[in-house]
Amino acid sequence: MLLILVVTSIGAWLYVLSVMDEEPRARGISQRITSITTLTRYALISSDTSYRFDLIMALAQREGLVILPKESGDIVRPLPSDRVNTMVEEFVTQQLGAKTKLASSINGMPGLWVSFTIDGDEYWLRTEKDINPERLGQNWIFWFIGMLFVVTLFTVLLTSRIIEPLERLARFARELGRGRAPAPLPIEGPKEIQEVNESFNVMVQDLKRLANDREVLLAGVSHDLRTPITRLRLEVELAPLSEETRDAMCSDLDQMENIVKQFMAYVREGEQPLEVVNFSQTVLDAIASSRMKSSEDVQLTEEVDPNLEIRANPTDISRAVQNLIVNAGKYGRSTDGILRLNISLKHNKKRNLAELTVSDDGAGLPEEQFERVLRPFERGDQARGNTTGSGLGLSIVERAARAAGGSVRLSQNIPNGLSIHVSIPLVATSLINRALKPEK
Length: 440
Hints:
- The protein is an alpha+beta fold.
- The chain has three domains: 107 residues, 2-Layer Sandwich (Beta-Lactamase), CATH 3.30.450; 91 residues, Signal transduction histidine kinase, dimerisation/phosphotransfer (DHp) domain (Helix Hairpins), CATH 1.10.287.130; 165 residues, 2-Layer Sandwich (Heat Shock Protein 90).
- It contains eleven helices and twelve strands.
- The strands form three sheets. Strands 1-5-4-3-2 form a five-stranded antiparallel sheet, covered by helices on one side. The chain has a five-stranded mixed sheet with strand order 7-9-10-12-11, with helices on one face. The protein has a two-stranded antiparallel sheet with strand order 6-8.
- Strand 3 and strand 4 form a beta hairpin.
- Helix 5 runs parallel beside helix 6, helix 6 packs antiparallel against helix 7 and helix 8 packs across helix 9.
- The longest helix is centred in the middle third of the chain and has 48 residues.
- The chain is rod-shaped, with a radius of gyration of 45 Å.
């Protein structure tokens, strides 16, 4: 936009310059015509009649001036109608008389012709071969190119000074969105950019402080709850209770222990080291540890592409896959009590992603709740009747995927149920290995 503005300004300046140059140029042309015509006329008048023809030939050869007698049958083409030519005709007739005529062609011979008389005889004099001399010359082209180069250079420097800090801010914001605390932004550039960077740094520090406070609070609560839970479990085991009551109380204590573990998992340190993880093996291990293959009320279908490697924290990504399977077991059963679960891990070759899809045949969720259930301590309406969860399962999945550079998306499973899609970029070594080992 800045370049367009500058080029438009230069074009407008050239137009104004050409308009302002019209009258001086017309006066210069008319003065030259008047001088040449007057001098030629007096040269012919003062010369001997016997040498007049030789003088006309000499003027034609040396000066390029062509003199023709004016005839009634001459084919005369007037000057083109424009402001400059109109002013030239006015100035010439003021100097040479009202009967003076100007033409752009006489009998097919182009040029700038002017009429004059000698002793009652009328003649045509060609003063210029071209009736359209250059207005501004050719120098304006070089000036224009030079100005455009300088303006382009300074425009690039100016925009880079503004765009580069914004690109860095966007990059740091993406890092923050993935759960990583970026380094402080440098306070440099224009004043507005400095203020934005300073505000961003303050926001990052506030988020760090909030995360640390939340971690201390939840970790302290979770740690303090473990001892009473262990004591209660021991007392339940020793108390004279019926087997049914003891099993129910132990089940409640197990649920409390799982909630405490989820709290501890969620408040772990945000900056976890990332390493190359075999995502395919992680999914297979999670399926095996869930023991769903041996369960009579589970119909499990799995499709796992081998050796898909991602860069993630092994513990976090394993817990995320386990949470997906556990959540499907809790909320994905159909009305007949059967869990029909489809687990698929595919290589998206077009986008170079490992795409994990966990689909069930349960009641599903309304689409307006998809975004909400990914937030911490949020559960869908169908799960609210079940108080065994903490609302952290999907948020842990979303945070683990985001830390690995991926994303989580929910969709309806046709005809019934819910599908959770986890997309994570593959590492370069995984792509190379898959290229060298064609699928059988």
